[in-house]
UniProtKB/TrEMBL annotation:
Protein name: Response regulator
Entry-annotated residues carrying 4-aspartylphosphate: D62
Record domain Response regulatory: where: 12-129
InterPro entries documented for this protein: Bact_response_regulator, CheY-like_superfamily, Sig_transdc_resp-reg_receiver
Source domain of life: Bacteria
Gene source species: Pedococcus aerophilus
Keywords of this entry: Phosphoprotein
Length: 133
């Protein structure tokens, strides 16, 4: 189950991707359409650091990134008691990677496909996380 929303404010989501354009579009979508606070990171290690500092309500993370990939970062998050409660949704352009992630038992609540529709991304994410609109 997802944690309660951030006290006294909108949900906070960390978006992690090594593609600046994807970060910009996701950030605009989740903030403007979803009304959420969005921070970004460009890699797995930066995501772990930001999660420990900021404790977002959820993380949306690309699977394929240089350095530490999203799957490894999700596993490391699940092993850290300070951030293991933060739900992770993987974002991938590879259909096979999405299927593999769901079948492999990775500690994620779901997988979203790229390219995504910026107008429906917040609703898709809310559904995966069990958040009501």
């Amino acid at each position: 189950m997802s944690p309660a929303p951030s006290p006294g404010g909108p949900r906070r989501v960390l978006v992690v991707d090594d593609d600046e354009l994807i970060l910009e579009v996701a950030e605009m979508s989740l903030s403007m359409v979803g009304g959420w606070e969005v921070t970004t990171a460009t890699g797995g290690q930066e995501a772990l650091d930001r999660c420990a500092r900021e404790l977002p309500d959820a993380v949306v993370m690309d699977v394929m990134m240089p350095g530490m990939d999203g799957s490894t970062a999700a596993i490391l998050m699940s092993q850290d008691p300070a951030i293991s409660h933060i739900p992770v949704v993987l974002l991938t352009a590879k259909a096979q990677a999405a299927e593999d992630a769901q079948k492999s038992g990775l500690p994620v609540v779901g997988v979203l496909a790229k390219p995504f529709d910026p107008m429906t991304l917040p609703a898709q994410l809310s559904t995966l996380l069990g958040w009501t609109a």
